C-alpha cells in the first residue's frame, strides 16, 4: 500500500507478559527501527479492526496467539500512529517470524540493559514506564 504524504498510518502493538512478568519483545527486521528491539505489532490493514490486527501481527511476528484487551496508550513515530493494547497470551510457541529477526521475553534487568546499549526503539523504555507497563520481573 502506497503512503500518501502527510497522512498518518494506523498501526497497533501488543503489550504481553509471561507468567513470570517478563515483557514480550521482538527485534525489528525492517524499518522503522530495523535491528532495534520493540513491542510486536504493525500496520492495520484496510477493513481490519485494531483487535484483528493485533492478533494477526503478534501471530506473524512471535508465533503466539493473543487476546487483545485494553488500549494502554498511543504513540506517534513519524507517519505511524501506534495504538498499543494489553494482550493475554493464550497459545502458540514463541518463534520469531515475518518482520522479526528475534523474539524473546525480557525481564526488568534485560530491558534496562537493552535501553543502556541503545538497542530499544526510540523512547520505548520511557513510554512503557509512563504507561506503568515495564516488566514485573
What's the short story on this structure?
The protein has 137 residues and is of the alpha+beta class.
Descriptive key words:
single chain; three-stranded antiparallel β-sheet; globular
Description of the molecule:
This protein is an alpha+beta fold. It has one domain (9-130): Nucleoside Triphosphate Pyrophosphohydrolase. It contains three helices and seven strands, in the order ββββαβββαα. The chain has helices spanning 50-62, 108-116, 124-130, and strands at residues 9-16, 23-28, 37-38, 41-43, 64-77, 80-92, 100-106. It has a four-stranded mixed sheet with strand order 4-1-6-5, with helices on one face. A hairpin with an 8-residue loop joins β2 (23-28) and β3. The protein is globular, with a radius of gyration of 14 Å. It starts with 8 loop residues before the first strand and ends in a 7-residue tail after the last helix. The mean pLDDT is 92.
Tell me the β content: 35-45%
Count of helical stretches: 3
Distance between the termini: 39 Å
| Number of discrete domains | 1
Family: Belongs to the Nudix hydrolase family.
Keywords: Hydrolase
Organism: Amycolatopsis nalaikhensis
Cofactor: Mg(2+)
How would you summarize the topology of this molecule?
Blueprint: E1 9-16, E2 23-28, E3 37-38, E4 41-43, H1 50-62, E5 64-77, E6 80-92, E7 100-106, H2 108-116, H3 124-130
